[in-house]
Amino acid sequence: RGRARVLGQRGEADLVVDDDVDGAARRVPFEVGQVQRLRHDALARERKVRVATDNVAAASAADVVVLCLKPMNVIPVCRALREGKAVKRGALVISIAAGVKIDAIAAVLGETVPIIRAMPNTPCAIGCGTTVLSAGTRAGEIQMRSARGIFETLGRVIELEERPNLVKLTKYIE
């Protein structure tokens, strides 16, 4: 049984956190580490999750780190995680940041970190969507199974290789 930490602001993290509390992904305990303090207490009450304001501390005990960040914040947060040695050996990193490629994240976190890029489409917010998963070179079947377990609660999951314009595909999948 692993521990997952969702790093990000409220909007992006909701897709994953909602179904952790209410759906099949409940077996993976989540803790949200967010940068903005304003919604800290409300998020904890509404979603029944632990909320932290320190991404490095939140990620340090995680088996799965979900990066639910604005694209411009992914690399700086990854740098902070690397400098704080927050991604433990064997931990899976999943990114839902649009347009941020696996190679860019691996260049910061290290080539040995298993990374999966997840691209959920808008209907995932109501459990009727599709998420495209793309595995980095270090992510194997065990890591893909973990990612599928999280995102299947939001709808269908499709696995594809990371390609240019892959993110555009998610809005056309019904």
Feature tags:
alpha/beta; 8-stranded mixed β-sheet; globular; 174 residues; 8 strands; single chain
Can you tell me about this structure?
This protein is an alpha/beta fold and 174 residues long. The chain is 37% helix and 22% strand. It has seven helices and eight strands; from the N terminus they run βαβαβαβαβαββαβα. The protein has helices at 10-22, 40-47, 55-60, 71-83, 102-109, 141-151, 166-170; strands spanning 4-8, 30-33, 50-52, 64-68, 92-95, 115-120, 129-135, 155-159. It has an eight-stranded mixed β-sheet with strand order 3-2-1-4-5-6-7-8, sandwiched between helices. α4 packs parallel to α5 (102-109). The protein starts with a strand and ends with a helix. Mean pLDDT is 79; it is low at 15-29.
The overall pLDDT, averaged over residues, is 79
Anisotropy-based shape: globular
Low-confidence stretches: 15-29
Radius of gyration: 15 Å
Strand content: 15-25%
Structural class: alpha/beta
As laid out across the biggest beta sheet, the strand order is: 3-2-1-4-5-6-7-8
- In DSSP terms (H or I, runs of 4 or more residues), the helix count works out at 7
Q: Which range best describes the helical content: under 10%, 10-25%, 25-40%, 40-55%, 55-70% or over 70%?
A: 25-40%
N/C terminus separation: 32 Å
Number of strands: 8
Order of helices and strands: EHEHEHEHEHEEHEH
Main β-sheet: number of strands, strand sense, barrel status?
8 strands, mixed
